Amino acid sequence: MKNVLQKMGYMMSCWLSCPRHAQISAGPLEDHIATFLEPGDVLLVEGSSRFSVVIKYLTQSSWSHAALHVGRDNARHFGAQHGECFIEADVAEGVRLVGLNEFNGCHLRICRPVGLRAKEVEALIQFVGSRLGHRYDLHNVIDLARYFFPLPPVPQRWRKRFLTLGSGDPTRAICSTLIAQAFQSIYYPILPIADDTTATSADFMANSDLLLTQRHYSLFTPRDFDLSPYFEIVKPRLMGGFDAHQLHWREPIDSPSL
After folding, report:
1. Under a CB-based contact definition with an 8 Å cutoff, are residues 241 and 205 in contact?
2. Which domain holds residue 7?
3. Using alpha carbons only, what angle is made at residue 110 by residues 112 and 79, rounded to the nearest 5 degrees?
4. Are 228 and 114 in contact (CB under 8 A)?
5. pLDDT tens digit string along 196-246?
6. Were 232 and a residue from 68, 112, 141, 181 both cysteine, which residue would form a disulfide, CB within 3.0 to 4.6 Å?
7. What is the Cα–Cα distance from 115 to 230, expressed in whole angstroms?
């Protein structure tokens, strides 16, 4: 019976991973993007699968997936082939290594943790690397089956909690849990809670004496790495010496009549 449920769960997860609708493509990945990536970077992805649509709705964000860049040298240590340099948690295949080409055509955002020491980056990568091969608990069909139904009108304050219903194990529902656990294992902040409830965002940055509490890793979603004040947004096109005055434009066209 267990094997039957696991097969059903795997088939369901494959169905959820398929695109639900056509999405405006971001175009082919530019080769120079890889040269700006550093180990420890979090790559946010705007996916178009059925599963992604649900996550984007529940988190009210464009970002539905997150992957950790571990670098090619570290990836080879984990057995990578063919340029694989990211570790991600996939709903169908579990925790695996993938290459940058896996995200071809998707809108992407690079979020970089600031100020990490080399040993901390190494510990971060070892944490996710040790989880390679771990799989979603696919025998729990109830967790996946709820995504077959039309999206319910979930109140905004309950949406994050809705992601963890079912088995009670949030790693079965969303990819960013693994990455959040990894950063919390080295005590790097994402969106920490200050014990002083009157503290402002400026206090977080300026007052090192604030006592912080980690949020439970199950409550993190891909958008939280974008919102975090501790992650720098890296835009390769701008870092490559962008000059708007060098662009060539076609002649303006008349606006379509209403």
Report:
1. no
2. 2-187+221-240
3. 85
4. no
5. 655 555 555 555 667 888 888 878 889 999 999 999 999 988 887 889 998
6. 112
7. 9
